[in-house]
Amino acid sequence: MPTRFASGAAVLKPRTAVQTLPDYHPPLGGRIGLRCDFNENTIGCSPRVLAKLRSLSPEDLARYPEREPVEGAVAEHFQLQPSELLLTNGVDDAIHLLCETFLEPDHQVLIPAPTFAMYEIFAAATGASVVSISTDAEFSFPLERLLLQLTARTRLIAIANPNNPTGAVAAPEELLAIAEAAPHAALLVDEAYYDFYGSTLFHAWNDYPNLFVARTFSKAYGLAGLRAGILTGAPEALASVRRVASPYSVNSVALACLPEAVADRFFVENYASEICAQRERLQMQLATWGVRFWPSQANFVLFEVGEKHARFVDAMRARGILVRDRSRDPGCGGCVRVTLGLRPQTDLLLAAMTEVFAELQLISRERAQ
Amino acid sequence: MPTRFASGAAVLKPRTAVQTLPDYHPPLGGRIGLRCDFNENTIGCSPRVLAKLRSLSPEDLARYPEREPVEGAVAEHFQLQPSELLLTNGVDDAIHLLCETFLEPDHQVLIPAPTFAMYEIFAAATGASVVSISTDAEFSFPLERLLLQLTARTRLIAIANPNNPTGAVAAPEELLAIAEAAPHAALLVDEAYYDFYGSTLFHAWNDYPNLFVARTFSKAYGLAGLRAGILTGAPEALASVRRVASPYSVNSVALACLPEAVADRFFVENYASEICAQRERLQMQLATWGVRFWPSQANFVLFEVGEKHARFVDAMRARGILVRDRSRDPGCGGCVRVTLGLRPQTDLLLAAMTEVFAELQLISRERAQ
Fold first, then answer.
1. Please, what's the largest Cα pairwise distance for chain B?
2. pLDDT at position A119, please?
């Protein structure tokens, strides 16, 4: 037996990038009530999905998942070639894979702020430098500032469109200007909230081979628990990402259910249409109350409560409605984000908000009538 | 609008490590027949798991998964602290996370060969150098050769125990000698086939804080489709891995079903015990036939068919039995791996093997009687 190789003092250490990685602990515990906190579908998934789930056999669970046939079916639904689509373990996995495919420690990543936290976390984990591009008070898309930060080391630009938690959007021509200006960088446009917005960059990768577009089944489709996202792009660029993808990353239940989920167009379109109507209703009410809010193209609205944001969230929870304090996000001091539900759920939401705003003396009792 | 930043010639390129990454395309398509090819549970999962799956509501699918409470329940079952256990999206995810946590491009990874392909793929994806440690013709554990390859740059050593595709094992003291000799490297002991073997290094991380032990629900538990693995280790080391883990990497169906799966001990113990009995039966038959095989401590047996390995696999498939050609694995020329099933399934397996061995004139017709 060789003698001990290393000195007794040697210990296992994580990479420096891991040691300094920001923590992300979503406030999941004890989510009892109307779920207006995570931008999920508030009524669940299509009955067709549930029927499929319940038809699964022990054998279906025992077999390793086969992703490719389902990728073909999902691609067909979205009128894409199978080579233009990769199914992922939620969009988190898609972001992770993009970072792993393209980022080295000497690279730079541009991310507008505020936005979805996972872009920064997965990018920073590679050791690359993350440059946060601040927006103005209206959260309008910071195109000029972003283009000014582009360098030869820029290798990823991640943009949620519509953005979360603001609900703001970038115009297609703004996004394509970035793809054009940075052909050496991957441009990820995360269309997680597409169904509540309607504008997409699908197919634009034919002109911009560095463009990737992500979609999720966690929002309008009501399948956050199943973990299914899609990453789309030009076949050649996507082939590189596919190399680092784990063959069994998407579970068999998701794979069995996705064809049902995309086939039930009525469920998703009807839900999204109703959510958009309720979004207008909430925004009109906020305007009536004189509460500052940001017009949203997603299934949530961000508004400014002010110093009493934490008390607002607690008081809503006490009334059985979960909403999300976003006051720690850059530029979001005092802000709360509320996910929309269907009409009866919005009735409950507005009734509770009316009480809480009055209780906290944020609007006058007269206005709250 | 700023002018185009980069020259027209600039294009997006994946990292060098990704460009040279080995492909892994498991032969999944058209798996019709008795599944003796992927070391899955051949009868499916516990009825308690299926009942739980069928009780899930649309709301359960629509909510983001909550991993922590289930980690607590699974840790308790294995008599571990929650801080000693991380649930992962299959063991693939555990391997991926370990590589991401510890490996830099100037590091070195030691992997005995032949073994499970994903260690090399995830390690190589980081840009680290992978050193393959060859075994002898008996596939005995290459402890001396491995220790001789240790350097200050070694940061990960990945060992499947029992090993796949050989079924061979390393003794606990051999594994701990590695942990002792390389305190600056993570030692992953992948106990995917633990239930068919019975020896574990659980808790040894109290003395060797660089030791990680993985387990899976894809084999004995019959849940390969759900994607659930566990990574265990000393709380401090595991905390680093937890930092890079995606908060929603394990889906809600798996999380709902795991407490049922671990609670039904009878199902797993009974299945494993029956598989071990059938393993002895197959090994005795191979010995009787004079077919070279390697004694296995897992739910499969590797044996040498010789030049006709591909014809053997095809002829078995024609008889409705899927087996796996492993002849491309290092040291496994002409070898086939067969997963064991229950007694009636082994009856079918042996009957088909008898016919095929005779048909291919690998054993005499008399011996095949």
1. 84
2. 98
Minimum mean pLDDT range among A225-239, B4-18, B26-40: B4-18
Q: Which residue of B has its CA nearest to A120?
A: B244
Does the beta carbon of A94 lie under 8 angstroms from any beta carbon of chain B? Answer: no
Q: Is A23 on the interface with B (CB under 8 A)?
A: yes
Looking only at the bridges linking them, the beta strands covering B154-160 and B108-113 are: parallel
Q: A220: nearest CA in chain B?
A: B62
**Cβ A150 vs Cβ A110: under 8 Å:** yes
Write phi, then psi, for B152 (nearest 5 degrees).
Answer: -65, -20
How far is residue B225's CA from residue B305's CA, in Å, rounded to a whole number?
A: 30
**A96 φ, ψ to 5°?**
-60, -45
Q: How many CB atoms lie within 10 A of CB A56?
A: 18
Do A14 and B101 make contact, defined as CB atoms within 8 angstroms? Answer: yes
Q: For residue B290, what are the contacts with CB-CB under 8 A and spacing of at least 6?
A: B363, B367
Angle in degrees, CA A7, A9, A11, rounded to 5: 105
Which domains, and CATH codes, for chain A?
A: 25-41+266-368 (3.90.1150.10), 47-263 (3.40.640.10)
CA distance B116 to B114: 7
Q: Do A63 and B184 touch (CB under 8 A)?
A: no
Which residues between 153 and 182 in chain A have a beta carbon less than 8 angstroms from any beta carbon of chain B? 155, 177, 180-182
Supply B129's token pair: 């150098």
A245 SS3 class: coil
ipTM greater than 0.90? yes
Q: What is the pTM of this model?
A: 0.95
- Edge-first strand order for the sheet with B324-325 is B293-294, B300-304, B335-339, B324-325
Among A52, A64, A175, the residue to mutate for chain B (most B Cβ within 10 A): A64
| Contact partners, residue B282, CB within 8 Å, separation at least 6 | B301, B338, B340, B346, B349, B350
The 10s digit of each residue's pLDDT in B63-104 is: 999 999 999 999 999 999 999 999 999 999 999 999 999 999
Strands A300-304 and A34-35: unpaired
- How far, in Å, CA of A115 to CA of A133, rounded? 10
Structure tokens at B62: 């629509």
CA gap A235, A237 in Å, rounded: 6
CA distance B118 to B160: 11
Extended strands (E) in chain A: 34-35, 85-88, 108-113, 129-134, 154-160, 186-190, 211-216, 229-233, 293-294, 300-304, 321-322, 324-325, 335-339
Per the listing, tokens 């401090």 go with B236
Contact residues, B window 108-137, toward A, CB-based 8 Å cutoff:
118, 125
Q: Which residue of A has its CA nearest to B127?
A: A104
CB B293 within 8 A of CB B283: yes
Residue that the structure tokens 């063991």 belong to: B91
Q: Which residues of B311-324 are buried (b: 16+ CB within 10 A; e: fewer)?
A: ebbebbbebebbbb
Distance, in Å, from the CA atom of B40 to the CA atom of A183, rounded to the nearest integer, reads: 45
Nearest chain A alpha carbon to B15:
A102
- Both structure tokens of B2: 């700023």
Which of B21, B125, B237 lies at the smallest CB-CB distance from A12?
A: B237
Q: pLDDT for B263-284, tens place per residue?
A: 999 999 999 999 999 999 999 9
Residue A51 contacts B where some CB pair is shorter than 8 Å: no
Torsions phi, psi of B284, nearest 5? -65, -40
Distance between CA A329 and CA A165 in Å, rounded?
A: 9
